[in-house]
Design goal:
This protein is an alpha/beta fold. The protein is 34% helix and 22% strand. The chain has three domains: 126 residues, Rossmann fold, CATH 3.40.50.12160; 236 residues, Alpha-Beta Horseshoe (pyruvate-formate lyase- activating enzyme); 64 residues, Nucleic acid-binding proteins (OB fold (Dihydrolipoamide Acetyltransferase, E2P)). Bound molecules: S-adenosyl-L-homocysteine, iron/sulfur cluster (SF4) and FE3-S4 cluster. Its cofactor is [4Fe-4S] cluster.
Length: 454
């Protein structure tokens, strides 16, 4: 192992899971004596934490990698690492494509970075993509925010949506124990963090792989039980969770969210399509009627809850009429936010080899039409906040206007107001909303709430 201090840079693509993994890997590197370097060109260890969800995410990685691989010829002590979902998907073949790489490691190996690097420093080129049980890791992550934080609760995904690479690259479901999750949250509370987002690709599956069942045969550990169990962690003021799957979403969970004051009234429940035939061919396991019932139930318990989702347009064989059913769902539900994407065929997924692939023109036309409607509806949804006083947890300075700070409402709307970040970071501030946009708000501070820890 090198004894001289190295300088590292991490570039992260993809979802919150990857962001959480990057923070953990940064923690491991700092523990080993590496220091963060803001300019990748001055770093002697570069780690790309990659995403493979759509082809354009994957291609981005190759173009970045090409540049650094060239640099390695002039600077042989440069260590190049590809981690994350492209690493898992491509494995050995990444080395053939970019022979300058030192380490290719799948997401399940993130906690093992130290061991793997030791092998690299011993002179090996290493590929770590075998399926392993993810070990609890006690190294402190280097977190990007001082206020909000991610906590993994379940890794992997056992679903088989026909368009999706995630089960191939993230492996089978593996829940962390409630005790380990609570311990991490308690540590975050002690460090001054105010908000925790519990993470899982299909978070409603939490606990089904853990031993134990109640006398009614229900799993002993469900997401609902977990929320009750971690709710009183001192210092943590807000709890969020993502991503929810409509197939497993229960009324019991909705009740818990309504009952527990720290759980934010924000639900991220992807619907993917508003058409039953398409949903079936995606293997999603629910109908649009079931999806609507979930939203109705949420709104019955929490009329003001904010609802966000993901949707795909141009799935193989999707007709104009079927696409219009997606528009109809968006029109009728009124989402606060929807992340949209044109279908992208992915390696080793069933839908990628189906005959009825749609042209890029059709896909991008549908994407535009859907996004247009989503904007209109989100703007309509924002109207309800005008003139109201909302509680905003302050995160950062507004990078575009230094006189302002930026935070989020419980419903996850970005909110800006005039204030000094050094005084307000991590504070809950009551803000009167004066200006609304589709996805963000501006207001005036009314009162800084003294946070009373439980
Ligand atoms: N686990 C979550 C989503 C994970 S992936 C769920 O079940 O909803 C994040 C989003 O990427 C998905 O919700 C989907 O909208 C999109 N996505 C996944 N695979 C895709 C593909 N092949 N083409 C386009 N979008 C895709
Ligand atoms: Fe992919 Fe479906 Fe699993 Fe979500 S639930 S990660 S879309 S396979
Ligand atoms: Fe991408 Fe992997 Fe997340 S494919 S979306 S980084 S699970």
């Amino acid at each position: 192992m090198t004894t001289s201090k190295g300088r590292y840079h991490i570039i992260t693509f993809g979802c919150q899971m990857n962001k959480a993994d990057s923070e953990r890997m940064a923690g491991i590197l700092e523990d080993m004596g590496f220091e963060w370097e803001i300019d990748p060109n001055n770093a002697n260890l570069i780690l790309y934490n990659t995403c493979s969800i759509r082809d354009n995410a994957e291609q981005k990685v190759y173009s970045y990698l090409g540049r650094q691989a060239k640099r390695k010829h002039e600077q042989p002590d440069l260590t190049l690492i590809v981690a994350g979902c492209v690493a898992q998907q491509e494995g050995e073949s990444l080395l053939r494509r970019v022979p300058e790489l030192d380490l290719v490691m799948g997401p399940q190996h993130a906690n093992r970075l130290k061991d793997l690097l030791q092998q690299v420093f011993d002179g090996n080129q290493v590929v770590a993509t075998d399926a392993v049980h993810i070990m609890e890791d006690i190294t402190k992550p280097r977190r990007d925010s001082k206020v909000t934080s991610w906590v993994n609760v379940i890794y992997g995904c056992n679903e088989r949506c026909t368009y999706c690479v995630v089960p191939n690259v993230r492996g089978v479901e593996q829940s962390r124990t409630p005790e380990a999750i609570r311990a991490e949250m308690e540590e975050l509370g002690r460090q001054g963090y105010k908000e925790v987002t519990l993470l899982g690709q299909n978070i409603d599956a939490y606990g089904r792989d853990l031993p134990g069942a109640t006398s009614e045969g229900r799993h002993l550990h469900t997401l609902t039980d977990l929320l009750y169990y971690v709710h009183d962690v001192p210092g943590i003021e807000r709890i969020r969770f993502a991503t929810s799957h409509p197939r497993y979403f229960t009324e019991r969970l909705i009740k818990a969210c309504a009952e527990l004051p720290k759980v934010c009234e924000h639900f991220h429940i992807p619907f993917q399509s508003g058409d039953n035939e398409v949903l079936k061919r995606m293997s999603r396991g629910y109908t649009h009627e079931k999806y609507r019932r979930i939203i109705d139930t949420i709104r019955r318990y929490m009329p003001d809850a904010s609802i966000s989702a993901d949707a795909i347009v141009g799935f193989p064989g999707e007709t104009e009429e079927q696409f219009e059913n997606t528009l109809k769902l968006v029109e009728e539900i009124g989402f606060d936010l929807v992340n949209t994407a044109a279908y992208s065929p992915r390696p080793l997924t069933p839908a990628a080899v189906w005959d009825e692939q749609l042209s890029e023109e059709v896909k991008s036309d549908r994407l535009q039409r859907l996004n247009h409607l989503i904007n209109i509806k989100a703007y309509e949804r924002s109207q309800r906040y005008h003139g109201r006083i909302l509680s905003v947890l302050v995160e950062e300075q507004n990078t575009k206007d230094k006189a302002q700070v930026m935070g989020r409402t419980s419903g996850n709307r970005l909110t800006f107001f005039n204030g000094d970040i050094t005084a307000l970071q991590g504070k809950l501030v009551n803000v009167k909303i004066t200006d609304i946009r589709a996805f963000s708000l501006t207001g005036e501070p009314v009162e800084v709430r003294e946070v009373i820890s439980v």
